[in-house]
Amino acid sequence: MTPTRHTNEHALIGVNDMVLLTDVSEASILKNVKLRHAADIIYTYIGQVLVVLNPYKWLNIYDDEMMKRYVHQNRIDVPPHVFSISEDAYRMMLLERDHQCIIISGESGAGKTEASKQIQNYIATISHSGSGIDRIKRVFLESNPLLEAFGNAKTGRNNNSSRFGKFFELFFDDLGQPQGGKVTNYLLEKSRTITPRKEERNFHIFYQILRGLLSNSAFTEKLGLSGNTKKPQDFKYLNISECYDIDGVDDEKDFDDTMKAMQHVGMKKRQIELVIQTCVAILHLGNADFTAQTIQDAEGSTVKYPEPVITCCKLLGVDSDECLNNFCFKDFETMAPGGKVERYQVPQNPTQASARRDSLAKIIYGRLFDFLIERINHALDLQRRADEQDTTNFSHCTFKMDEMSRLGILDIYGFEVFDRNGFEQFCINYVNEKLQQLFIELTLRSEQDEYAREGIEWTPIPFFNNMVVCDLVDATYTKQTRQGAAQAPGIFLILDDTIKTMHSQEGEAIDKTFLGKVAGIHQNHPHFTKRGRDFEIRHYAGTVQYQTKGFGDTNKGALSPELYCMLQKSKNKLIRYLFPESSVEEEEKKSYNKPKYMAAPTEGSKIRTQSEALIHKLMECSPHYVRCLKSNDQKQANRFDDGRVLHQIKYLGLLENLRVRRAGFAYRGEYGRFLDRFRIISSETYPDHIFTGTDKKGTQLVLRSAAEGIPKLKEEAQFGKTMIFIRTPETLFSIEKLREDVMGKYVKKIQRIWRSYFGQRYFLKLNHEVAKLYEANEKIRQRVSICRPFQGDYLLPEKTDEIHARILEIMRFYGDSKKILFVDYVDKIMPRSSARIAMNDIHLAKRFRDCGSVYSASRLLVLTEQYFYVLEETSPISFEVGASKNVKCQIQPILGLRQRVHLTMIEGILLSTYADPCFILQIRPDPLLKEPDRSNWLEDRSVIQCMDTGKKFGLFCRRHHCRFSGKIYCDDVCKQVEVIPSLGYYTPVRVHDSCIGNISTEMLEDQLLLSEKKSEIVIFLADAIRVLADGKTIPINFQNSVQLRTALDKELSRSPQQEIIFSVTSTDELKLMGDHNSLQIQAPRGVPKEYSAKRRKRLKARRQRTEAKREEERAQRAQRRAQIEQDREYERIERIKLRKAKKQADREARLQSTQSSNSTTSSMMKSESAKARSSQDRFKKSIDLPQQSSGGMGSELAAILARRRGNAE
Predict the structure, then answer these.
(1) Residue 106 known to bind ligand
(2) Which of 218, 263, 547, 603 has the fewest CB atoms within 10 Å, i.e. is most exposed?
C-alpha cells in the first residue's frame, strides 16, 4: 500500500521516505516511485539514500529560491532533493570536520551526470565567497563543459552519456571556504575514438570542432579541414556510426562554451590551439586506409592514399615516412649465437597495420584527456596558487591539502550491457561491482551497527553479497579459504598471465588461449559460464555475455616502441609533453635488453589499482548515496516503464536496503529532534520553558500523552541510548496527525491574534476619527465600546472553520475574491408579520417579549472591500419554504444568503445620540419590476441536454430554466424554488439546486441592526465606501427619530414599518417597546466622558505588566534553549571524538596492513614472474596450490572491510 497523506500544508504524493511504506516489497517501491513520477516528483528517500528517477524533461526545481529552502535545513524537515543530500554532506563536513563523499550510481542514462552537476552548483552557491575562492568555484564549475566535450558522447541510452568516470574533490578550510580541488578520471572509453557503435556518436569535441571552426577559414585551412574533409561525414572515425547530430544540441554553440571553459581553467591560447590540432590529427589519422602488398614473399601492406597520413603527421609534428613505415612494419628481434641481438622488420598485413593506426589514435586521445584533467587540477591546486601569487590573497594557504576537510562527488558511468560487450564493458561492470560491494559494506552494515549501538534487538536481514563476483574478477593469488577450499585467481590475473606468456603472438591467439584458461579454472563457478568463444558473468545487476575478441590487445594498452619513439621526437610541444616517460636516448639504450611487456602495466592492472585506490579514499569518508533510475529506455518524457524500473530496483538492491533500514522499525530519530518536533503534543513539554528534563525524558512524556489517543504506541515504541524507535509507519502517521491537530488549534489562535494585531493600528486611527465624530455630536458611549481591542473576526473558534468555508463558497459563487474586512453576528430588527421565521429567530425574540410588533433575528454580517453580505444560519424550518410542493428540501447549507449589497448602494448611516448598540444602514430600495428579468435566459433550441447531468431532453426528461442563471436543466436537478427579488420574482420560482442558499432573497431597504461592535462596523463600512468611491465619504448622521424606507413589496419587506424613536432609560439594559405606529428603543445609561481617559490609563498599565511577564517568559525560554543546545553540542562533539578515534585506528591498521601486503606482494610477484614463463599445464597446476583467501577485493581492502565488520583476526 502506498498512502497519500494529507497535511495542513500540502498533500504528499506517496511517501517521501520509503522506509514508511506499509508494504515492504519491490512492487510497493515501484508503485511509490511511479506515483511520484506521475506528479513530477523525482526524488524519494530510503533512509539516508536518495533515489532519483530520470524524468527525461527539465523540471524547474533547481533555481536559487529552491536552494534557499534547503540551506541549514535537516533532511527530514524538507522534501527529498539532491540539494538536501548536498546540504547534509557540506554541513557534516563543517560540523564534524570529517571527510564526506557523495556516491552517485545507476545505469547509463539514469541521470548521474545531471545529479553531479546540481550537487556542484549547490556547494558552489552556499559556500563562502571571496576573490580567490570565487576563482576556485569558477574552475570547479567550468570544468564540467570541458570534461563533457572530451569525455561524453551520444549513446543509444543517453544523448550526453559520460564515457568516463570522475571523482571531484573540493578541499575546504575550517570556515567552509573552498581552497582547492582535484579531479580524478577513470575508465575513459578510448575505443569510442575509433569505433563508435551504430546510431551513436564519437566524443562531442570532434563534432564541436568541425562545426565551430566553420567561420575561421585560416585556422581550418591550417588544420586541413577543407574540400572533402571538413564535415563529420568525411571522417571514418565519425561516419562509421552513421550518426552526426543530436536533437536539441547545437554543437557550434557548445564549441564556444568548451573554448571558454579551457580559458577558465587557465589554458593559454596556444595550448588550446594545440589541443584542437591534436583532435583534428586523430580524425585525419582515421582516414588512412591500407591495401595488401607482397613484400619478400610475405603479406604486407601499404597506405592506399597517403594524404590523410601526411596531414596527420604535419599536425602531430612527426615525419610522415617514418609514421607510414611504423604502420606497415613491426620491429622484431632475435637472439643470435653468442648473445648478439639481431633486429629486423616484419611486414604487417592491412588488418595489422590498421590496428597499429587505431592503437596510436586511442593512445593519443587518452593522454590528451589526461592532459586536460591535469590542467584542471593545476588550476585547482592550492599550493601552486600560493607559490605563484601573493599569499595575502589566500588567507588560509598555510593549510595543507591533507589537513583540510574534503567533499568528494563520484560520478562514474553505471552498469552496462549491450548487444556486444568487450573488455571496456567488462572493466566498467567490474568497477560497479566494487562500488556495490562498498555500498553493501558501509550502508547495510551501518544499519546493523546502529541497532547494536543503541541496544535495540532486531533480526538480521539476508541480502546478496556480491563479493563472490568480485573474487571471480580480481582475485590476485591462489589462497586458502577458511573452509579449506582453494580459491582460484581472478579473470584479470589470468588475462595478464596469458599476455606475459604469449607477448609475441597476435591478439586472436591470446584471446583464444585466455578463454580456455578461464573456462578451465572457473568451470564450476556459479557466476561464470562459457558460451562458445564468449563467456558470461552473472553480475549483481544481471547476466552479461562478453566477447573475448580484442581482450588481449585492449588489455596490453601500451603503444609499440617504434611509434612511441616517433612521438617523442615530435616537433609539437604538446605531443612531446604527452609522452614524457623517458628520453629517446634512454629508450634506445634500453634497446631490447629487457622485454618491454614486462615493464608496461596492463590496462587491467591499472584499473584494479585505480579502483582499490578509489575504494580506499571513499572509505576514509562518510558516504552519502544517490541511486539513479531510468524511467524508460526510449528517453521519453512522461513515460514510465514498469519492467525496466523494477529491474533497476532489483539490481540496485533497494529492497534489501529498505528491509535493513526498517529492520522492524520504520522510524528512528534522536531524542532532541523528536522532542523539538512533537513537544507540542504534551502539556508537560509545551511551552518549552516549563520543561526542564532531558531530551529522553521529554520524549517519554510526549509518547505517554500521544498513547492516550494511540493505544498501540506503547508496544510500538522502543527507547535506545540516544534515539527513539517506532515500529510501523502507521503509528508514526498517527503521531504526525495528532501533532497536526494540536498545531491546527494553535495556528487558528495565532491567525486570529495576527489579524487583530495587523489591523490594530489601522483600526485605532479610524476609531480616533469616529471618537471625534461622536464627541462632536454629543453621543453617549457604552462602557464596553471604549478601548475594546480590535479582532476583525469575532466568530467563536469552534464554528470558525465550517462557517468560513461557507462564506468563501458564497463569495466564489459570485466571483468575489476581495479581502474580508469584518465578520460578526448582528441582530436584525424585523416585523413579526414576516413569513420566514426560523426556530433560532423565535428563540431570540424572547429578548424583546415586551414588544409585540417586532422581533430580533440573528444574522451574520460579512464585510468585504466591495460588498457586505447578510447571512442566516439555516434550519429545516427556514428552508421548508424553499421547496416546491410535495418536495422536501434536501439542500441545507449551514449559512443561507439573505442579502448581498454593493457598498455603493448604501446612501448613509444613521446613529442615535444615546448609548445604544443600534445603527441604521440607509440602502437604496429595489424598484418593482413589472416583468421578471429574463435577459440572461438561454434559448430552448440552443440546448439539447441538461447542462448539469448531461441527460438528453425528451418526453421523459423535460426542460426547466433556472430563473436565476438562465441555464437549462432537467427536472432532477431543478426541483427547488426560491424568491429572487433582484430579478423580479417576488414569489418562489424554480432554480437549480446549486442556487439554494446562494441567492439574495430579501429586497434592498433600510435596515435596523444591533451590535456591540457597532463602532467597528461603522468605521470599516465608511472607510471601504470611501476607498471604493475614490475618496467620496458617506454621510454619518445622528438622529433620535427616523422612519425607515422599506421595500416596495410589503410582503417581502423585512424592516419595521413604524417610526423608530430612541430614548434613554435609568437602567443598564436595552429595551424595545412599541405598537404598530411606533417603535421605541430605550438605550441603557452611558458612561461619563472622563471614564474613557481613566480606562485607557488602566489598560496601559495592564499591558505593561503583561509585556513584562512575557519578556520574563521569553528570557526563561531562551535560557532553557541555550542550555539544551549546549548539552546537545557537547554530546555531538563527544560522538565526533569517538568516531575520529575509531577512524584513526582504522587508518593505522590499514597502513600496517598495507606494509605487510606490499612485502607479501613483492615475493609473490617474483614467484609469478617465474610461473609466467612456464607452460599452460604448469600454470594450471600452480593455481591449484592451496593458499590463503583475500576475500576477492585485494588483501589490503579485505582487511579494511574486515575491520568495518568487526571480525578482523
Answers:
(1) yes
(2) 218
